[in-house]
Amino acid sequence: MRITAIDCHPVWIGHRNQLLLKISTDQGLYGWGESGFSGRERAVIGAVDHYRELLIGRDPMLPGAIWQELYRSQYFEGGRVLTAAISAIDIALHDIRGKALGVPVHQLLGGRVRDRVPALASTFAAPGPEMIEEAQSFVADGFQAIRLQRGGRDANPHEPWEAIGETAPWMARAREALGPSVVLGVDFHHRLSLAETASFCQRLPRGTLDFLEEPMRDETPEAYTALRTMTEIPFALGEEFASKWQALPYIERGLAQYMRLDVCNIGGFTEAMKVAGWCEAHYVDLMPHNPLGPVCTAASIHLAAAVPNFAWLEYNRSRFRPPPQIELDLFPNSPTLQGAYFPVTDTPGIGIEVNEALLSRDEFRYWNPPILRRRDGSFTNW
């Protein structure tokens, strides 16, 4: 079996693109992957165009060897654009391999260790009574872990101290309302500085939060080393990681208690399994980043099914935020929650079908994440 074509399909879903990738073979088998580098799809497509020249005519049953060649075939190592492209390719190759062998991808990763994958529910209301009501409804639906909303989520201008002041008291109220057994966290979307993060943590009564997600960017592990001395709250980090090397200091230094790797950015299944094993050796559980589409969700379910050190899979859909109709039409067999869990299926490959007739319905649309400013006119992180 040989690779005959690699095609990228940026598809407008709701408010942004999902960048799908299809690898075709001379035996009629094909695989789907997805890139997680949202807002820079053209850059990833350009990387795939380069990699296509290396891959046409190759055996798709060798994803490990192909990963090494794609990563090491340029002088400059890695980078998020390249690993986002490699991720999509690697997922699609595993999809083909599973279909060729008639087994689900989780069987290729060592076999399932669980029959269903627990999901992490996220509230969408701003800190306040409605946020707590949403969280209570999730608990009633059986969710064990809830991610609460931060203040000033999409405010522009965005002032971190105001967001902290709005968020902290409602975290304590949520804990009081939801009780001690529910796992609670908040995601600050790497918008805070070290001092701001420390102040936020110190405003919370002890035991309020079970995890603090991505309060700062990941470029400087030393900043998280300093923060670790200022708070006892566990950190959920890793959605920005583009390789096992980026994850290294956070695992080895005990800076991540939950690993938020994204299978569509870190290098696909090939790299994700290595990071998962590394985390297991350090008693770190996986809480995968999963904000994209059904291909990413399906791939993440297979990863979660095969690793023992797994906590919850992020899932941003609920009765409060149903998927757009185009997504339902494009992916007729999208993974579906059963209560607070995704079932682990035995469909060969990753188990996703794509209605290809809809892929070329729209022209490519540029999308950029919100550009946030402070009141003084300076830029801040989105």
Description:
By secondary structure, the protein is an alpha/beta fold. It has 2 domains: 3-103, 2-Layer Sandwich (Enolase-like, domain 1); 107-349, TIM Barrel, CATH 3.20.20. It is 37% helix and 16% strand. Strands 4, 5, 6, 7, 8, 9, 10, 11 and 12 form a 9-stranded mixed β-sheet that branches. A 3-stranded antiparallel β-sheet has the order 1-2-3. A two-stranded antiparallel sheet has the order 13-14. The model has no long low-confidence stretch (mean pLDDT 95).
Spell out the key features of this protein.
12 helices, Enolase-like, domain 1, 2 domains, globular, alpha/beta, single chain, 382 residues, TIM Barrel, three-stranded antiparallel β-sheet, nine-stranded mixed β-sheet
User: Stretches where pLDDT falls below 50 for ≥5 residues?
Assistant: none
Topology-level CATH name of the largest domain? TIM Barrel
State the separation between the terminal residues, measured CA to CA: 44 Å
Q: What are the secondary-structure elements, in order, as H or E?
A: EEEHHHHEHEHEHEHEHEHEHEHEEE
Derived structural class: alpha/beta
Largest sheet: 9 strands, mixed
Outline of this structure?
With 382 residues, the protein is of the alpha/beta class.
Topology:
Blueprint: E1 3-13, E2 16-25, E3 30-35, H1 41-55, H2 63-72, H3 80-101, H4 105-108, E4 116-122, H5 129-140, E5 145-148, H6 160-178, E6 183-187, H7 194-202, E7 211-213, H8 221-228, E8 235-237, H9 244-252, E9 258-259, H10 268-281, E10 285-286, H11 294-306, E11 313-315, H12 325-330, E12 341-343, E13 372-373, E14 379-380
Parallel strand pairs: 4-5, 4-11, 5-6, 6-7, 7-8, 8-9, 9-10
Antiparallel strand pairs: 1-2, 2-3, 4-12, 13-14
Helix pairs in contact: 1-3, 2-3, 5-6, 6-7
